[in-house]
# Entry
Amino acid sequence: MALILYPDGTSKEVHPANGDHFEIEELVQIVEGTIQMIPLPDGRIMTLNEEGGRVGLPPNEQATALAGFPFNEGPLAALRGLGVETPSYAVGPLDLAYIPGTVLVSTKQEVSWTE
# Structure
């Protein structure tokens, strides 16, 4: 069973439509755009909108915390305290600011498919 985490702090349990794994089209619909997957510290996979920060999707604090990103601490928090906008998801441990938009948290098997 997978979990959709919304930026407003709510969540919803979901199952793949085919009962086995999420198809690409389902993932695109859930995250409302091009998909990107990142591994989570607990072994699950987070699927998010790859362009979420660029298109202005709101920060998802639940997803940010789950991914272990420094949303409310460290140098990025200091920048926010000065009124400086920080970037959304970017590659590199010091560039990670927050996860934007709606995300899907699932097992690796739920997002594995063959073409």
